[in-house]
Specification:
The complex is a heterodimer of chains A (473) and B (268). By secondary structure, chain A is α+β, with helices and mostly antiparallel strands. Chain A has 15 helices and 20 strands. In chain A, helix 1 runs antiparallel to helix 2, helix 9 crosses helix 11 and helix 13 packs antiparallel against helix 14. The relative contact order of chain A is 0.13. Chain B is of the alpha/beta class and 268 residues long. In chain B, the strands form 3 sheets. Chain B has a 9-stranded mixed sheet with strand order 11-10-9-12-8-1-6-7-13, with helices on both faces. Chain B has a two-stranded antiparallel sheet with strand order 2-5. Chain B has a two-stranded antiparallel sheet with strand order 3-4. The longest helix of chain B is centred in the middle third of the chain and has 19 residues. Classes of the chains: A alpha+beta (473), B alpha/beta (268). The interface between A and B is medium-sized, with 22 and 17 residues.
Chain lengths: 473, 268
């Protein structure tokens, strides 16, 4: 571990000058700041936390910490799933939740400028009142946009609209030295040197602290229709996915899940939304897709053709959600899978691999067969449209040590398989500190050294979010 | 069994906006939906049909031409046939005038269908007006027995068994047909339409009943002029916090829990 200094009363006094009234010390620090949603990767209380209010405040804090060699970890709502914002070396935690203003809309250029603590749901709702849509749609709507940008969050609509990266136009960043810099601009194309904006996106708070973001919007689609296709078994369900694209359908979202995970989500929400039986046949798995467009008249023929294809591929029926209440219920059930699992599980780990769309069925078969060799239960669901699977290992009765040991063996095996099939370690959750080892195995020493080199250029003293992404302690 | 389900198209919001000048609903920009309670009534009918496929479900709505969209949605969910009562002369009807017009329309629909309805299902109230009067008034005008606050319905010989919501628990009530049931929110939502039903609903013929088809309706009892109700003022009532029900194994335990809760709230 690098040699960091402790936060002394003198340093606290300096921090107080920069962020008067917002510096919280020792036992008064909110215990939530010791972790994200995956405490299994480790937790640690920071010595100091500061709910920052401005770019200048962040710059002042970074300067003090840089001069005094104190580790700094930035966090938003703490909804991460890879231990990315866990202050594993202690030091100072900067929380951006109070920087929660939508600063301005540039409707001529379809852009919005926000502070990093604005919640995804907040921007999504607000953009709609301007007739615009912010397309990235991760399941966790209470995440901050700063966190979304830092992990290149994906979500349900990525299959048509891409991930957060595709919507980041410009960033204001405080570097570890305390310097303030700006990357990118509202223009829609650029060939002007290395893309620092893209380097920041997905860097998980290891290169700088994002304090302002200009994000791209699109005109909000006027009509949305979801189709729900129950299948008797998972295999038939997943095998249908490539056919959707081969038939030139462009769904906004395309998700698959098994009945068990749906039931736990519905129990969590206290509401049964999806049918579990179709004309006497038990449903095994569901394919859920959404189409959007300018009018129902435009969508109706597309939806009819898609439904026809689904029935040909073995769907037991095709159900339609085209009213606001039905769409809300449908996607609320889908968005609560993780909460449903968390509520029923004491020990939980997860993986977020992404594989080519035509390999999903093979991969899921492998995961099932591998999972059978261990004592925990494997649950999964996925963004079928982009091959991104969320696989959970769940146990309520294993000892934690044994759980960790078995999970490590399981994860190593399924990551290896994902890479073999041409996939990647994380589709949208990031590497954080939970997946560094697996990333190193997947990309190899050359790429890891390149990443570490980039990290050094930004952060020569390695004080910003240590032990994450490409660095171990 | 022949079931008629009465539905109303309402704006999709619980906090509806009222034009302060005219005291009427502002409908612009607010998407329209089937009144949720009417959706539960439709689902109750669909569940009867699940058990007895010979059941015929007819939906009836009174409203402007746009209400056709709500009827098509009902056709997609479960209905076999839809009728729309629509005429300028009926516009602005209060609950009394509405139930009067509907009672006349029902007679006409029965004539067109060639059969009487065994049961008429309504939502307990529409979420825009919240009066809960049309269903009971309609039952009176038809001279039918009525059960309000229905949750579930089961077909039995010559009648229905209705699970009815009560203040201190649910009741199971038997009612002879023909009857009228109003429905409140059960533990389930109306089913999703299937694509096949959706496609059929899009093309379905919806018969419109105007004053021409309903010559028997006394127009002095219809529309704004035929309505005795005068709206002086409308407002959105303040939201009430949900209450808490304490129900332990014994009365003593319940009392102890209540005591603790009141103490913690510094009420006693």
């Amino acid at each position: 571990m690098p040699n960091y200094n402790a936060v002394t009363p003198e340093i606290i006094a300096q921090l107080e000058k920069v962020a008067p009234g917002h510096v919280v010390v020792g036992a008064d620090v909110n215990p939530d700041y010791s972790r994200d949603e995956m405490p299994i990767y480790g937790t640690r209380m920071p010595e100091v936390s500061i709910d920052v209010q401005s770019t200048e405040e962040v710059a002042g804090i970074m300067k003090i910490c840089y001069e005094n060699n104190i580790p700094v970890t930035t966090r938003g709502a703490g909804t991460g799933l890879a231990g990315g914002c866990t202050p594993i070396c202690g030091g100072v935690v900067i929380c951006t939740m109070r920087m929660n203003k939508i600063l301005s809309y540039d409707l001529e250029n379809f852009a919005v400028t926000v502070q990093p603590g604005v919640l995804l749901q907040q921007l999504a709702d607000d953009a709609l009142t301007h007739g615009c849509m912010y397309p990235p749609d991760p399941g966790e709507k209470m995440a901050t946009l700063g966190g979304n940008v830092s992990t290149n969050a994906g979500g349900m609509r990525a299959v048509k609209y891409g991930c957060t990266r595709d919507y980041v136009r410009a960033l204001t960043v405080v570097l570890p030295t305390g310097e303030i810099t700006h990357f990118g601009s509202t223009v829609s194309k650029t060939s002007s040197g290395y893309s620092m904006t893209n380097l920041m996106v997905g860097s998980e708070g290891t290169l700088g602290v994002i304090t302002e973001m200009t994000l791209k919007l699109i005109p909000a689609p006027k009509a949305t229709i979801s189709l729900m296709a129950p299948f008797e078994d998972l295999d038939a369900c997943i095998s249908t996915v490539p056919k959707v694209f081969m038939n030139h359908f462009k769904p906004q979202a395309l998700e698959f899940f098994e009945k068990e995970i749906l039931i736990s989500s519905e129990e969590y929400l206290g509401k049964q939304v999806f049918p579990r039986q179709i004309e006497g046949t038990d449903v095994g798995a569901y394919l859920l897709m959404t189409f959007d467009g300018d009018s129902d008249d435009e969508l109706d023929p597309i939806v009819e053709r898609a439904a026809e294809m689904l029935l040909e591929e073995g769907a037991l029926d095709v159900l339609v959600a085209d009213t606001a209440p039905k769409l809300k219920d449908t996607w609320a059930a889908r968005s609560s899978f993780l909460e449903g699992i968390e509520e029923q599980t004491k020990l939980l780990d997860e993986c977020d691999v992404v594989v080519p769309v035509n390999k999903i069925a093979d991969y899921v078969r492998f995961v099932n067969a591998t999972g059978d060799q261990f004592d925990f239960t494997v649950k999964y669901f996925g963004h079928a449209g982009d091959g991104n699977l969320h696989i959970y290992t769940c146990s309520n009765d294993m000892a934690e040590d044994e759980f960790r040991k078995q999970v490590d063996a399981f994860m190593s095996a399924i990551y290896k398989k994902a890479v073999e099939l041409g996939g990647q370690i994380s589709g949208e959750h990031g590497i954080g500190m939970g997946k560094v080892k697996y990333l190193a195995e997947a990309v190899g020493p050359v790429n890891m050294q390149l990443m570490q080199g980039i990290k050094k250029v930004f952060d020569p003293k390695m004080i910003l979010n240590p032990g994450k992404v490409c660095c171990t302690l | 069994m022949n079931i008629l389900v009465c539905i109303k198209q309402v704006p999709d919001t619980n906090e509806i906006k009222i034009d302060p000048e005219t005291n009427t609903l502002i409908r612009d920009g607010v998407p329209s939906i089937i009144n949720p309670f009417d959706g539960y009534a439709l689902e109750a009918a669909a569940r009867i049909k699940d058990k007895n496929p010979d059941t015929r479900i007819v939906v009836l709505s009174m409203g402007p031409q746009q209400a056709e969209a709500a009827l098509r949605e009902a056709l997609a969910i479960a209905a076999d046939k839809a009728y729309l009562v629509s005429d300028r002369a009926f516009g602005g009807s209060d609950t009394l005038a509405t139930s009067y017009i509907l009672s006349g329309a029902i007679a006409k629909v029965e004539e067109l269908e060639g059969a009487k309805f065994d049961a008429i299902f309504c939502g307990k109230q529409a979420i825009d007006g919240d009066t809960a009067q049309v269903g009971p008034e309609l039952a009176e005008l038809l001279g039918y027995p009525q059960v309000t606050y229905g949750l579930e319905a089961e077909e039995v010989e010559g009648g229905l068994h209705i699970l009815k919501e009560g203040e201190d628990g649910n009741y199971r009530i038997g009612v002879k047909c023909p009857c009228l049931i109003t429905y409140t929110k059960p533990a389930f939502d109306p089913r999703f339409p299937t694509i096949k039903r959706k496609m059929a609903a899009r093309k379905a013929q919806i018969d419109v009943l105007t004053t021409t088809e309903l010559p028997g309706i006394d127009l002095t009892r219809a529309g704004l002029k035929g309505s005795p109700t005068r709206v002086r003022k409308t407002f959105v009532p303040p939201r009430k916090e949900a209450g808490v029900i304490i129900k332990e194994e014994t009365g003593e335990e319940s009392a102890a829990k209540l005591f603790t809760a009141l103490t913690e709230a510094h009420v006693i």
